[in-house]
Amino acid sequence: MFKDLFKNWNTIPNWISFARIIMVPIFAVLFLNDEIIWSVVVLALSGLSDMVDGKIARRFNQVSDLGKVLDPVADKLTQITIAVLLYLNFSSAENELIKTFSWIFLVFIIKEFVMVAFGGFMIAIGLRPSAAEIYGKLSTLAFYVVMILLFAFAPEVGAFREYWVIPDTLLVILVAATAVLCVIAFVSYLPTTYKQFKEKYFKKK
To answer: Which of 197, 188, 182, 192 is nearest to 75 (CA)?
Structure first.
């Protein structure tokens, strides 16, 4: 199965996914070195490229098995990195509400780690992780939009907070709504995943 993944791998969408994976450490290093503006730029580029790679694959008939793995891997690595960095910053914030609310980022971290681990397990036993459903796509879009807003305008973190700062209540609502979408997206994968296990291990002889 692993050999089959690399059939017709040399496509533009796959190279975009490779680039997105490379952007993850670049984004983290920039953020940790207080180059917040550049980290926001890298994050925005990653989000935009995530929106176009699938469209390019379908438009030019460049859908591949490797792409179906690389795209979610790039998503998961990016989202885990973002959630970890924001959790660390918010948990040490001077603002008490934000500091108390920082635990919500653990929802993103746990969900993505579970999906990465279980996705790897499925590939190892010959199953394919389910493709993103509508809830997964909405969740990813909401995640990128909200997190870019936080990196740009959040208290104590935002690169452009001298121009405008997201009010605490709005910040809590935005992140909580994104977390709810994240959980809904996770649940939406379960029926398809169960169906694959049922067909492989519990089908009638």
So the answer is: 182
Residue type, 72: P
DSSP string for residues in 73-137:
HHHHHHHHHHHHHHHHHHHT-SSHHHHHHTTHHHHHHHHHHHHHHHHHHHHHTT--PPPP-HHHH
Structural domain of 110: 2-199
Asked, for residue 205, whether it belongs to a domain, the answer is no
pLDDT digits (tens, 9 = 90+) for 60-92: 676 777 777 778 888 888 989 999 999 998 888
**Cα angle for residues 105, 148, 62 (degrees, 5° grid):** 100
pTM of the predicted model as reported, rounded to 2 decimal places: 0.82
Number of domains comprising the chain: 1
CATH number, domain containing residue 80: 1.20.120.1760
Rounded distance between C-alpha atoms, residue 204 and residue 183, angstroms = 33
